[in-house]
Design a protein that fits this description.
The complex is a heterodimer of chains A (about 280) and B (about 325). Chain A is an alpha/beta fold. Helices cover about 40% and strands about 20% of the residues of chain A. In chain A, helix 4 packs across helix 5 and helix 7 runs parallel beside helix 8. Chain B is mainly alpha-helical and about 325 residues long. In chain B, the strands form two sheets. Chain B has a three-stranded antiparallel sheet with strand order 2-3-4, with helices on both faces. Chain B has a two-stranded antiparallel ribbon with strand order 1-5. The chains are: A alpha/beta (about 280), B mainly alpha (about 325).
Chain lengths: ~280, ~325
């Protein structure tokens, strides 16, 4: 049963990101994993080893695509070439939904390869929602947008981040990939209450949750995806699942990547929060 | 929700605040921030204190970025400036171990910083980040003097490996597919992932030695996290630079593994001419016209060439494109 109208895949359970250092282990040992998330751009190539590995993974596992370069929030229109390549991959993976970030990262064909923050204005929300609708109509697959971690806020902003996220997804009529680690990181960097964020996004649109580790610096926190999930983020996760119900959840670990078993073990900790919730409901 | 506390350096009255009430104003803000992000860092890995027009960068930053109780507008913008440069330099550092060994790490970092300042990434994927490095250094060889020729050979060789790793493979043609074709009419395409290189240095053996010594690997994955700025380690193990010697290389993949294969000069010419769209007959004639070798049974040699290349899957249907 879907937990809400944008969450048709609650049975997906707990997934992990498919990363190069784990390829050999996964292909040889075929561990039981609910699903893998792939970074779409790593497989938007014309041939070679990446696609061979992907096809082998697809024979055994469910795969969901997650992008880092669609840049829904860019003032420029989406690249039609990018969308065509992405659609080829969507057809290959048969991803049940596709996610990318609520951010911008390119201007006039120059790419920062970063997830840059949006000014939270109504005009920016409209431009972003238009881009999301265009992508969804072209790709013909449900889209979830992910809140990013950020280190800067703009004078131009007219609303909070969660109000902006809500405005965008309502206008675009799309789902949310709720990254609770990013909420925590941004809350620390911008002095807001992460629980206010969680309480005020449209819960009926959350289709997926991300969890990850981060790094603390003297004056800010950086989203580094190179650690286990920290306690405050697990607490936020517990609160999130209380609000949105059982939801496909994924652990991101992109740097200083430990063994497959260690990453998977860390991800599966999420189950205890879901089970606790369901036991309480029973 | 707590409110951010402005700091004394929060804002200058000289630069008006940027508003975002339209897509055009969103574009203006993003263009400004991107310009700041793409500007090279100072020698101390910080953001340039002066803007392009001589203004204080802090004045400019405070026109569109809020400060908080710990960081000024400048500090917050600088985080993105630093992350960008750490990420792109780290990527080229991993992709060009051979060029790094040719130039030495300090010079390599200067070269790639200058390159990226002139040619910011023009692709959604970091895979293509080095695609214009050869052009940049042919236009501005002072960056790689006095080893320009060797450095350019290495850049071509290392870029060919990026291409071989994941470029398109078209359906391969087997000898049976062209059994009845007449050589004067037959045109064969070469796989897009196959690069043919005529080089002045034995960069293939040199790169093997470099990789053996530092266990370098081709980057194969983009990530939206970053590592620290790559640094000259100070523990560089110098490997003897390659000898000057004309070589011909095919850089390709087989069973999705990367390979480089030395070619006879005649074989190289045949393949180059085939790639240019000539018939098999013409390619063979051009190959033979280029030879300086004597006493070779060329009919047997050419047959062996074609059998070998076909077995490696290098031939595909010819297309004028």
């Amino acid at each position: 049963m879907p937990a809400n109208s944008f969450n048709n895949f609650t049975e997906y359970g707990i997934g992990i990101g498919l990363r190069v250092p784990h390829y050999r282990h996964i292909l040889a040992e075929k561990p039981v994993v609910d699903w893998f998330e792939i970074i779409s751009e790593n497989f938007m190539v014309d041939g070679g080893r990446p696609l061979e590995v992907l096809d082998l993974i697809l024979e055994q596992y469910r795969v969901v695509q997650h992008g880092v370069a669609m840049y829904f929030g860019s003032a420029d229109r989406l690249s039609r070439e990018h969308l065509k390549k992405l659609k080829r991959l969507v057809k290959r993976t048969k991803t049940p939904w596709l996610s990318d970030h609520l951010c911008w990262g390119s201007v006039d064909g120059r790419y920062t390869h970063d997830l840059l923050p949006m000014p939270y204005t109504f005009a920016a929300a409209k431009a972003t929602a238009d881009n999301i609708r265009e992508a969804r109509d072209f790709l013909e697959v449900p889209i979830c947008v992910e809140n990013v971690s950020s280190y800067a806020e703009f004078h131009a902003s007219e609303m909070t981040e969660w109000e902006f996220l809500s405005e965008v997804v309502e206008r675009a009529d799309c789902g949310i990939l709720l990254d609770v680690n990013n909420i925590y990181v941004s809350a620390q960097n911008h002095n807001f209450d992460p629980y206010a964020y969680l309480n005020n996004v449209p819960h009926d649109r959350v289709g997926q949750i991300h969890i990850a580790g981060h790094s603390k610096f003297e004056k800010y926190i950086l989203d580094t995806h190179d650690h286990p999930v920290l306690d405050p983020v697990w607490k936020l996760y517990a609160h999130a699942v209380k609000r949105v119900g059982r939801t496909a959840t994924l652990l991101e670990w992109d740097d200083s990547i430990p063994s497959f078993e260690e990453v998977h073990h860390e991800a599966l900790k999420a189950n205890q929060f879901i089970e606790k919730l369901e036991n309480a409901a029973a | 929700m707590k409110r951010s506390k402005p700091t004394s350096s929060s804002r200058s009255s000289k630069t008006p605040r940027l508003e975002v009430r339209s897509r055009a104003e969103l574009k203006a803000l993003q263009s400004l921030m991107a310009t700041a992000v793409f500007r090279p860092l100072t020698a101390h890995d910080g953001m340039e204190p002066r803007w392009i027009d001589g203004r204080k960068t802090s004045d400019l930053a405070s026109a569109f970025i809020k400060p908080n109780d710990r960081l000024t507008s400048f500090d917050r913008l600088e985080i993105y400036n630093r992350v960008y440069w750490f990420r792109v330099l780290d990527c080229l550092y991993d992709d060009y171990p051979g060029l790094r060994a040719v130039l030495g790490e300090r010079k390599f970092m200067k070269v790639i910083t200058a390159y990226l300042a002139k040619y910011p990434s023009a692709s959604f994927t970091l895979r293509n980040l080095g695609s214009r490095l050869e052009k940049f250094l042919r236009d501005e060889p002072r960056w790689i003097a006095p080893r320009a020729e060797l450095a350019l050979d290495m850049i071509r060789f290392e870029w060919a490996q990026v291409v071989a790793f994941d470029d398109e493979a078209k359906p391969a043609i087997t000898p049976d597919d062209v059994l009845d074709a007449r050589p004067e009419k037959l045109r064969l395409g070469l796989q897009p992932y196959l690069s043919l290189l005529e080089l002045n240095y034995e960069v293939d053996e040199f790169l093997l030695a470099v990789k053996k010594s530092e266990f370098a690997v081709l980057r194969s994955e983009a990530s939206n996290t970053f590592e620290a700025m790559p640094r000259a380690s100070g523990r560089e193990k110098r490997i003897r630079l390659p000898k000057r010697k004309r070589i011909h290389l095919a850089v390709h993949r087989h069973d999705n593994e990367l390979f480089y294969k030395r070619l006879d000069p005649e074989g190289f010419v045949i393949l180059e001419v085939l790639r240019g769209g000539a018939s098999v007959e013409e390619a063979c004639l051009r190959g033979l016209a280029s030879t300086k070798r004597t006493g070779v049974d060329w009919s047997e040699e050419i047959k062996a060439y074609f059998n070998n290349w076909a077995s490696l899957g290098w031939f595909c249907r010819f297309s004028k494109k």
